[in-house]
Amino acid sequence: MKAKVHITLKSGVLDPQGKAVQHALSSLGFAGVDNVRQGKFIELELAETDPAKAKSAVEQMCKGLLANTVIENYRVDLEG
Amino acid sequence: MKAAVIVFPGSNCDRDVAVALEAAMNHPPIMVWHRDTELPPVDLVVVPGGFSYGDYLRCGAMAAHSPIMREVKAKAESGTPVLGICNGFQILTETGLLPGALIRNAGLKFICKDVFLRVETSDSPFTRKYETGSVVRLPIAHAEGNYFADTATLDRLEGEGRVAFRYVTQGGGASLDANPNGAARNIAGIFNENRRVLGLMPHPERLAEDLLGGTDGKPMFEGLVEALS
């Protein structure tokens, strides 16, 4: 089973990289782009076959290491 | 006083802080490798600056889960003073020993320069040799030193007198201009609840003898020796 983890900065946490990307897009001529926020995407291959157990395990991984919940939110999607 | 300096793969200020500690203690600290699971009996643990584990995932995230940090956390919780400098501060927030997080500098750039700091309280083993309110000059060298915490946490830190150092002008004003990295409320260093754990982004060990161009960092090590011997 594959888990896909999206890690995003919480709203209210400054994202200077997102801002720089937004400036670059606007200088390339892409108009109407606002509020660019950069995050992380992590894929995990799991031996676990039970979706509920897999999801709970990956959520523990997010809380323990993959995300810093002081500044980041995470979302876990399972496939297969 | 006996001190231990934790060494991670990618630490690069471990030797600098060992030199500053040796000058203050008259004997060298014990260097402890990150894979060790036990600390020798010491009065102070230093988590030094650098780029532990190449800053993979987030600065300090991997180091926070290394075997020795479990032991450091346990020692800190039982009252042993812990000093985290730069990457060490990032590691201490990732372990949960200090609140908040260090995020990317507001200006995105790695900043390496001397800054002025106001000592917010002399009431700690780390700051006892400084006058409360005095302004000192110390170097910073980081890309992720922008201190972030939610408003309730910031208010609690201020209310409990747990802001140790603030970025200020030479005159001592905590203005926006004096803030090099966008840190919330110009915060450069904070204590835990009992002021036995200090995390700070500036490097006291890099200005701790005349040969280095200044000695404003020296009172921190002398104060620790005085308090913990």
From TrEMBL, chain A:
One of its GO terms (biological process) is 'de novo' IMP biosynthetic process. InterPro entries: PurS (IPR003850), PurS-like_sf (IPR036604). GO terms for cellular component: cytoplasm. Keywords: ATP-binding, Cytoplasm, Ligase, Nucleotide-binding, Purine biosynthesis. One of its GO terms (molecular function) is ATP binding. It catalyses: N(2)-formyl-N(1)-(5-phospho-beta-D-ribosyl)glycinamide + L-glutamine + ATP + H2O = 2-formamido-N(1)-(5-O-phospho-beta-D-ribosyl)acetamidine + L-glutamate + ADP + phosphate + H(+). It is an enzyme of class 6 (ligase). Signal peptide: none annotated. Pathway: Purine metabolism; IMP biosynthesis via de novo pathway; 5-amino-1-(5-phospho-D-ribosyl)imidazole from N(2)-formyl-N(1)-(5-phospho-D-ribosyl)glycinamide: step 1/2. Its main location: cytoplasm. Its EC number is 6.3.5.3. It is found in: Cytoplasm. Part of the phosphoribosylformylglycinamidine synthase complex involved in the purines biosynthetic pathway. Catalyzes the ATP-dependent conversion of formylglycinamide ribonucleotide (FGAR) and glutamine to yield formylglycinamidine ribonucleotide (FGAM) and glutamate. The FGAM synthase complex is composed of three subunits. PurQ produces an ammonia molecule by converting glutamine to glutamate. PurL transfers the ammonia molecule to FGAR to form FGAM in an ATP-dependent manner. Part of the FGAM synthase complex composed of 1 PurL, 1 PurQ and 2 PurS subunits. Belongs to the PurS family. This is Phosphoribosylformylglycinamidine synthase subunit PurS. The gene is purS.
TrEMBL record, chain B:
CDD domains: GATase1_FGAR_AT. Keywords: ATP-binding, Cytoplasm, Glutamine amidotransferase, Hydrolase, Ligase, Nucleotide-binding, Purine biosynthesis. One of its GO terms (molecular function) is phosphoribosylformylglycinamidine synthase activity. Pathway: Purine metabolism; IMP biosynthesis via de novo pathway; 5-amino-1-(5-phospho-D-ribosyl)imidazole from N(2)-formyl-N(1)-(5-phospho-D-ribosyl)glycinamide: step 1/2. SMART domains: GATase_5 (SM01211). Transmembrane segments: none annotated. Part of the FGAM synthase complex composed of 1 PurL, 1 PurQ and 2 PurS subunits. This is Phosphoribosylformylglycinamidine synthase subunit PurQ. It comes from Telmatospirillum siberiense. The gene is purQ.
